[in-house]
Specification:
- By secondary structure, this protein is an alpha/beta fold.
- It is built from 14 helices and 12 strands.
- It has helices at residues 10-13, 15-18, 77-91, 114-117, 122-127, 136-139, 155-162, 192-197, 199-208, 214-219, 232-244, 248-260, 266-280, 284-294; strands at 36-37, 46-47, 50-55, 61-66, 98-102, 107-109, 144-148, 151-153, 165-169, 173-175, 211-213, 225-227.
- It has a 6-stranded mixed beta sheet, sandwiched between helices. A 4-stranded mixed beta sheet has the order 6-8-10-11. The chain has a two-stranded antiparallel ribbon with strand order 1-2.
- The longest helix is centred in the first third of the chain and has 15 residues, at 77-91.
- The radius of gyration is 20 Å and the shape is globular.
- The relative contact order is 0.12.
Length: 304
């Protein structure tokens, strides 16, 4: 959840260099998007709020670009529905081994759509389980990489943190400024951010609404790498391509083991990891990988 940036506001457009005034209110309705056809999709799925294509060697990386430029990619419900559909499509594509989510040079996503949320009431959001479907990103079995340029605020920051790896452009800014709107994060901002950067820094960001730049995000462990803005997406695709070269079931097992470390005690996590390690011996790819190593050859995984 959080603020969406008002189209045409000069400070927002140039904010990656100069910062955004703490008094600025950002609102843009979720409508009027350009329709885009997914490149390489078997069904030629048409999206209103996304640009979807395949990249990398043999089209092994799915690329999803959030595409609400006038709203700086504010996350409205139709956009999130489309995002879930695109993720499902890549999840079922046997050729795709990793997925990259990115935005524009100005914003990964500047927050949730406040115009959409403003009139809602407690009974309505409670009964419709508002934001519950946002978990599709973290429920995706294949690795998801966030390539963050510009603003990742509120829901945008939460969306990035749902991904497995975050790469940031040099001008990226992260924050949970919901406090300025009289509410709190609702899609993981108080939970995942605390796990990533620690209680004190998470408290500071959530209670002040201040932003954190890319270099600080790297030093605090929120992101894995900071890349020149113009090279960011290519760098994310390159790591996705590398991941895609490995056994897909083994990659999925490894991802699950790492994610469980956030939810289990150390002893539970070690036991879970060991069981998955044992389970890898039931796969052909474990045999192929070890035999190739012994014979000083490159493994040719079969995803079985």
């Amino acid at each position: 959840m959080a603020m969406s940036l008002r189209f045409g506001f000069k400070t927002a457009i140039n904010g990656c260099r100069r910062g955004v005034s703490s008094q600025t209110q950002f609102f843009t309705p979720c409508m009027g998007a350009v329709r885009n056809m997914s490149s390489g999709s078997e069904e030629s799925r048409i999206y209103d709020y996304l640009i979807v294509e395949k990249r990398g060697k043999n089209d092994c990386v799915g690329l999803i670009q959030l595409n609400r430029p006038k709203a700086l990619n504010a996350l409205c419900s139709p956009l999130m529905t489309e995002l879930a559909e695109a993720l499902d499509s890549f999840e079922s594509d046997e050729n795709v081994g990793a997925i990259v989510i990115t935005g524009s040079s100005k914003a990964f996503a500047a927050g949730a759509d406040i115009v959409e949320m403003a009139p809602k009431t407690f009974p309505a959001i409670f009964t419709e389980k508002f934001l519950a479907d946002w978990t599709k990103v973290c429920d995706t079995q294949k690795p998801v990489i966030a390539a963050v340029n510009g603003y990742a605020l509120g829901g945008g920051c939460e969306l990035a943190m749902m991904c497995d790896i975050i790469y940031a452009g040099e001008t990226a800014k992260f924050g949970q400024p919901e406090i300025k709107l009289g509410t709190i994060p609702g899609a993981g901002g108080t939970q995942r951010l605390t796990l990533a950067v620690g209680k004190s820094k998470a408290m500071e960001l959530a209670l002040t609404g201040d932003f954190m730049d890319a270099s600080e995000a790297l030093s605090r462990g929120l992101v894995s790498k900071v890349v020149e803005n113009e090279k960011l997406v290519d760098e994310a695709i390159a790591v996705g391509e590398k991941i895609s070269s490995y056994s897909k079931p083994i990659v999925a097992m490894c991802k699950e083991a790492v994610n469980k470390s956030y939810e289990m005690t150390l002893s539970e996590g070690l036991s879970f990891e060991r069981r998955l390690f044992h389970g890898s011996f039931a796969t052909n790819d474990r045999r192929i990988g070890m035999e190739a190593f012994v014979n000083n050859e490159k493994p040719k995984f079969t995803d079985s």
